[in-house]
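In response to the reviewer comment on reproducibility (Comment 2.3), we provide here a single inverse folding case reported in full, input and output, so that an independent group could reproduce the run without further information from us. The structure tokens appear first.
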């Protein structure tokens, strides 16, 4: 029996470019230093987890809480203050510049004040799970997921995806992550929790929540589409051939591997070793394995 596992992040990269997926998930390569926007997003997530953990499920036997408790941050008292202490701790551990950390902490304070009377009640934080996605006689495909927050409002239970950034544009529901969350939880609502870092906008403009309804037919359509892509990537692995998608190289800020692909094929291994670090294999389900 062949078993293939994937998550929304892996699916995004597979659909973007098979060569990029090779470098990211077969070679497990990442830039030596993270972009500032990624640092900000990581730090905000490190603060949101203890904040909502204290407000809702009060589950403290997690990797983040065990580390915080060992560092002296106890899950008692004001959730906002404990989360800020977590932010200061992780900013030092992750070597995030002080100016960047201070900006993230300020936005977090403003976020908490804006949602002081939040109508959504937290049920679970950083929920990790796996679900059988597709099965054939000799094949199983497993979908792994890690959800930032699950909350309820009235009779609606929905997953939340925290998104940070400076861009101002309304999101759409055509997202592997959004639809995958709905598939994972057998639900039809997903909340995109936008946390803007714009300095000139009001809190109401920076902090917005977009609630999408994704019906079961769309979820099934997404599932079948994902199966096709995952199978094609498995073929790439077995054939050791990873075709490039040249239409993706300059999208957004550009692929992190574009300079590699622009270079002579014979020099690429050297440049990959020079410009990138080998990191731990990406696996959102490792938390499940650690707790089993």
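Designed residues, in position order:
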């Amino acid at each position: 029996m062949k078993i293939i596992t994937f998550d929304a992040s892996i699916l995004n990269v597979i659909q973007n470019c098979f060569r990029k997926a090779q470098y990211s998930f077969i070679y497990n390569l990442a830039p030596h230093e993270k972009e500032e926007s990624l640092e900000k997003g990581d730090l905000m997530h490190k603060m949101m987890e203890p904040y909502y953990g204290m407000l809702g499920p009060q589950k403290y036997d997690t990797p983040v809480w065990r580390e915080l408790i060992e560092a002296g941050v106890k899950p008692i008292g004001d959730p906002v203050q404990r989360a800020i202490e977590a932010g200061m701790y992780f900013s030092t551990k992750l070597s995030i510049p002080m100016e960047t950390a201070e900006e993230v902490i300020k936005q977090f304070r403003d976020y908490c004040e804006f949602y002081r009377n939040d109508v959504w009640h937290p049920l679970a934080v950083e929920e990790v799970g796996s679900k059988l996605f597709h099965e054939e006689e000799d094949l199983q495909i497993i979908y792994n997921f890690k959800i930032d927050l699950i909350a309820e409002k009235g009779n609606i239970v929905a997953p939340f995806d925290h998104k940070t950034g400076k861009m101002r544009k309304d999101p759409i529901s055509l997202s592997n992550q959004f639809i995958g969350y709905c598939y994972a939880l057998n639900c039809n609502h997903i909340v995109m929790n936008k946390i803007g870092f714009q300095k000139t906008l009001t809190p109401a403009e920076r902090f917005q929540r977009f609630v999408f309804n994704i019906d079961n037919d769309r979820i099934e359509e997404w599932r079948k589409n994902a199966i096709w892509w995952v199978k094609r990537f498995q073929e790439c692995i077995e054939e050791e051939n990873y075709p490039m998608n040249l239409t993706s190289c300059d999208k957004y800020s550009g692929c992190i591997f574009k300079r590699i692909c622009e270079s002579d094929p014979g020099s690429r291994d050297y440049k990959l070793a020079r410009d990138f670090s080998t990191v731990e294999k990406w696996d959102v389900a490792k938390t499940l394995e650690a707790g089993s």
